[in-house]
Amino acid sequence: AQLHYSVPEDREPGFSVGDLAKDLGVDVRSLAARNLRLVSEGGQRHFQVDLAAGVLLLDSRLDREALCGQSPTCSLHLQLVMENPLQLHRVEVDVLDVNDNAPQFPKPEVVLEITEVANPGTRLPLEVAEDPDMGSNSISTYELSPSKHFALSINVRGDGVKMPEIVLEKALDREKVPVHHLTLTALDGGNPVKSGTAKVTIHVLDANDNPPVCEPPISKVLLEENVPVGTLVTKLNVTDLDEGPNGDVEYSFKTSNNAPGKFTKLFSLDARTGEIRTKAPLDYEESSAYEIAVRARDKGSPAMEGHCHLRVELIDINDNSPEIVLTSVSSPVQEDAAPGTVIALIGVKDSDSGDNGQVRLQIAKELPFKLVSSFKEHFSLVTSGPLDREKASGYNITVRAVDSGSPQRATQKTFYLRIADVNDNAPNFSSPFDTAHIQENSLPGTSVFSVSASDPDEGSNAKLSYSIVDNGMQDVPISTYFRIDQDNGTIYTVRALDYEQDKVFQVPVEVKDAGSPALSSTAVVHVFVLDENDNAPSIVYPSVPKGSAFHQAIPALAEPGYLVTKIVAVDADSGHNAWLSYQLQESAEALPFQVERRSGEIRVAQALRESEDSHRLVVEVRDNGTPSLSASVVIVISPEENSVQDFSKSLDLPQASPEDTSLTLYLIISLVSISLVSCVMFGLAAARC
């Protein structure tokens, strides 16, 4: 919003300028909470805000002439900033002139000279009175004390300044009245009227009766600012009808109320030729025009002079770059900020005028922001699309200001906007399924596997904790077998595992961040228990009590190759831990029997003698584990005449070779392995589904 107030320049501090709360439509009680503050665009502070009453107060007495000089208008520009939400309001205060200055002449006494042969109508320019007030309070008119020979004439200069001149109305006679004393009074238009006077003394001279004449007496020149020093502005055209020294003219500057002596620092005048040149750089932004008064004096006796008035108007060129002012920046901004959220308030200024001072702002098109014009020379930077901190944690925003001059001038300012994180990303495991192996009978607390998850958020939104989820897929809660370190995701055993009881576990792991609300995801770790040789072979046949022997009768005439019996054993372990081999323990005497290493078959190795007694054999069954475990059985073989073989009499059967037996064993192992791998794969597929 933009507010407009006015205040006379003579008001005391504490004077109420305007009701801000009412004009802004804001509750007075909310001003303090919204941190209403005043930002002056100038260097001095002239106003203050009463938050309790919601009004704008005068902080110091204003002097319009000191603030704005001779400017026709005098305005002070302020900015009001309120937060929650962030708002910027522009306040323009017009300082009204009061008639607090009386007109004053540069000199209290003015001495003029005029030849006695001067013709009626001769004009004698007078010093212009100065009145710092403006408008109707400035100089309104001049008055001259009554005289038989002189009258007052008032001309209006190009800039509106009234210039008094004394006009000769009746021929002079120096012998009668050599000196005339007059009083010049300057009156302003205030109420009450104020005035200033100057004494005018006119000396009547004899002789040189033709003054230099400037043609035209008032002229105007257009000149570009920043022209090189020494540039010719104009050459005065002055004529004097006299001859000799009375017609030889010398030129000099004549100061006036337009910054007395100021233009003499910028322009030089050739006293002989009347050429006016620049002697310092000219700046349109400092002053757009200069009034130059030139005195043309001849060398007669007495000397006569003419006066030329030159107005130099500068043409603005684009010599000032725009200026960018960051009034306020809201950083950081939440990544879930809605489109249209105000990020920054930006002001722009250009000291040039016209098109040279028209400025437009630009930012990069690929940024998710846009500029919105608030009011003249003020813009708001707002979001134009979604923000994602995980893609861009911040933006270097370059604001570029370009004017409309030719050639264009530009400036830019860069500031960094940080994007604040919100919990919009769930943690992710590196793999939704993992496989781990652990030896059975491992001690409780043994590390099994470490899961790893990541979260692209930051801070507490990326702080992860791990836990095991009991999903009922096991007969016993999975937490009775495993635990997990909630900080690093390492899985440990709670108790020793038994391969013969559970060969594989599915451990569901959940990871959760510390955001609000918290987000989570899960993964499954398949833990395979590796077999250990912790079970000795068990003899299934023959089944005899511990400490007893198995008795087997065979024919007394059994020949080599005769099948006596077969030892059958099993091992609860798996793999190579369950590979069994059979052998006879060594004895003191040579036995006529042998046992097949892989099949456990006991056969007659050599022919029996007719009178041979029974034989005691100790058959040992040993697995292939490390260390190897074994079991044994005692078999007593008794040759008898009428014995009948319990199995098949395989004397005629060819004895199996060791190579055939090994091949059969390897085939069985391969089939079992393929079946086990297939079961595991089916289990994984079912768990994924």
TrEMBL record:
Residues 6-105, 106-214, 215-324, 325-429, 430-539, 546-656 form the Cadherin domain. GO terms for biological process: homophilic cell adhesion via plasma membrane adhesion molecules. Keywords: Calcium, Cell adhesion, Cell membrane, Glycoprotein, Membrane, Repeat, Signal, Transmembrane, Transmembrane helix. One of its GO terms (molecular function) is calcium ion binding. It is found in: Cell membrane. CDD domains: Cadherin_repeat. It comes from the Eukaryota. GO terms for cellular component: plasma membrane. PROSITE patterns: CADHERIN_1, CADHERIN_2. Pfam families: Cadherin, Cadherin_2. It is a single-pass type I membrane protein. The chain crosses the membrane at residues 663-687. SUPFAM superfamilies: Cadherin-like. This is Protocadherin gamma-C3. It comes from Pteruthius melanotis.
